[in-house]
Amino acid sequence: MHAPGRRRRHLLVLTSLAVVLAVSGGATAAAKPQRADPLQQGVDAIRDTGAVGVFAEASSPDAREVARAGAATRGTDRPMPWNGRYRIGSATKTFTATVVLQLVGEGRMSLDDTVERWLPGVVRGNGNDGGRITVRQLLRHTSGVPDALPRIAALNSAAGYRAERFRTYTPGELVETALRDSPTMPSPGDEWSYSNTNYVLAAMIVREVTGRSWADEVEDRIIRPLGLKGTSVPGAFPFIPGPHARSYASFGTGTRTDTGIDVTTLNPSMGIGSGSIISTAHDLNRFYTALLGGRLLEPAQLDEMTTTVPAPQLGVNYGLGLGELPLSCGGSYFGHLGELLGYHTLAGVTRDGTRTAVVYVTSDGGPDTQKAMNTLVDRELCRGEER
Question: 366 Cβ partners below 8 Å, 6+ apart?
Answer without folding.
Answer: 49, 50, 51, 255, 256
